[in-house]
C-alpha cells in the first residue's frame, strides 16, 4: 500500500502543478454529454485527465450508463496505479470460473482479486458483465483504500458516508451505479488519506 500512498500523493502534486501552470486549460478534453455545470463535471474531467476513464467513445462519457463489474476492476486498478501490473496478468489463468482466458479485462479482474479489491460474487464467480451496484462500487474503493473487513453492507455504507465518499448523493445500496456517480466517488477517494 506504500506504492498507493505515493501514487496518490504524486497525483495530487501533479494536479496542483498543472492547475497552477495551465489554469483554464485543465479539463480541455471534455465529453459532449457532460455539461460543465453538472455536479459531476469536475470529477469526470479530472479522472479523464488522469487517464482513469476515457469515456465510451464518440466523445461521450456515458452519463446515465451503468458500470460493469469488469469495467470497475479497470477503473480501480487505474485509480490505484496498478494498471500496468494488470497487463502482466492477461495471460494467466482466470481467478474466477466465469471469466474466460481471452476475456478483455482478464488481467484487471485477476489483479483486483489478487490485491483484495474484490472477492467476486461467491461460488468462485465474478459476473464480469453484471452491473455494479453502489454497495459493490463502495466495497471495491474501500478495499483499495485499505478499509478491509467492514461488515457487509452496513459497515461499508457507514464508512463511505463517514469518509464523505457519498456526500450529497442519495443512493440505495442495491441500485446500479451510473458512470458519473462512480466518477464522483472515485474523485473523492483520490483525496482521502489511505488507512
From TrEMBL:
Residues 1-23 form the signal peptide. The keyword Signal applies. Pfam families: SLH. Residues 27-90, 92-155 form the SLH domain. The keyword Repeat applies. Keywords: Repeat, Signal. PROSITE patterns: SLH. This is S-layer domain protein. It comes from Thermoanaerobacterium thermosaccharolyticum (strain ATCC 7956 / DSM 571 / NCIMB 9385 / NCA 3814 / NCTC 13789 / WDCM 00135 / 2032).
